[in-house]
């Protein structure tokens, strides 16, 4: 059971928009930046969004991120079949120790 | 372009120690203030952060693994390592090494991953 909650799966048609949610608490998302990772089948995760809404070089602007309070959202517009992957949110929690947290992942199917 | 590559045994017996090394190329492991990380994913499950190490040797561990975990760094060899003791089948996973650009940063570069199976 992950500390950060994501829907296990979502599906949408090519060309459509999908939003993936990530819910946490004051001590993690509420206090730290959120990042998003895309994991294509058989490959390592890839950083998609960092600092809530910034894109690394080379990531298309079809991908965007936002954060409000203790929740974050990844939006993907103009869905392509190549976007079919697992998506993970991530953040940090600093209490008695420093811990990186990930959501359980959302499997996106592009129909 | 920084590249990370995991290496180590793909099969470990229960109760033994799982040891992996991550070799960094394309940059010095001791420059830039980076934090060098281990992350794993169990078959069909999500990502789990194991811990990370700064080039000075300062470590941060996931409390759930801390009692069995040691992460070390060898700046002369430009690599860092993971030792996880007393493994069980629950430690069967794909292990990734990754880089965080500062203390609480996201992970911007990842290795390709190394599947480790715990079985007798």
Task: Give a written overview of the molecule.
The complex is a heterodimer of chains A (111) and B (120). Chain A has 111 residues and is mostly beta strands. Chain A is 0% helix and 46% strand. Chain A is built from no helices and nine strands. In chain A, the strands form two sheets. In chain A, strands 1, 3, 4, 7, 8 and 9 form a six-stranded mixed beta sheet that branches. In chain A, a hairpin with a 6-residue loop joins strand 3 (35-39) and strand 4. The model of chain B has no long low-confidence stretch (mean pLDDT 95). Chain B has strands spanning 3-7, 11-12, 18-25, 35-41, 47-54, 59-61, 69-74, 79-84, 93-100, 107-110, 114-118. Chain B has 120 residues and is an all-beta fold. Chain B contains no helices and eleven strands. At the A-B interface, strand 7 and strand 8 of A face strand 5 and strand 10 of B.
| Most extensive interface between two protein chains, with residue counts | A-B, 27 and 23 residues
Instruction: Report low-confidence residues of chain A grouped into runs of 5 or more.
Output: none
N- to C-terminal separation of chain B?
A: 39 Å
What is the arithmetic mean of pLDDT of chain B? 95
Order of helices and strands of chain B: EEEEEEEEEEE
Largest beta-sheet details of chain A: 6 strands, mixed
- Mean pLDDT score of chain A: 95
Got a strand count of chain B? 11
Order of helices and strands of chain A: EEEEEEEEE
Task: State the shape of chain B.
Answer: globular
Categorize the overall geometry of chain A.
Answer: globular
Distance between the termini of chain A: 28 Å
Helix count of chain B equals 0
Main sheet characteristics of chain B: 7 strands, mixed
Question: What is the radius of gyration of chain B?
Answer: 13 Å
**In percent, how helical is the residue content of chain A?**
under 10%
User: In DSSP terms, counting alpha (H) and pi (I) runs of 4 or more, how many helices of chain A?
Assistant: 0
Proportion of β residues of chain A?
over 45%
* Secondary structure category of chain A: mainly beta
Structural category of chain B is mainly beta
Radius of gyration of chain A: 13 Å
